[in-house]
Amino acid sequence: MDYRSQMNPCLSVLLSFLSLPFSTSVSDVSHSAAFAGSTARGLLLFLLGVIVFYVGEAMHRDREVKIEPVLWGAPTPNNVLLLSKFLATLLLSLFFLLLVALMAMLTQLLGGQTPVEISTYLITYFLILLPSLAFMAAASMALNVLLRDKYLSYAIMTAIGSGLFYLYSQGYNHWLYNPVLYSLWAEVDLAGSGALRIVALRVYCLAITILFLLIAHVCFQRGSTGMVHRLHRAE
Question: What are the residue ranges spanned by the domains of the chain?
Answer without folding.
Answer: 3-234
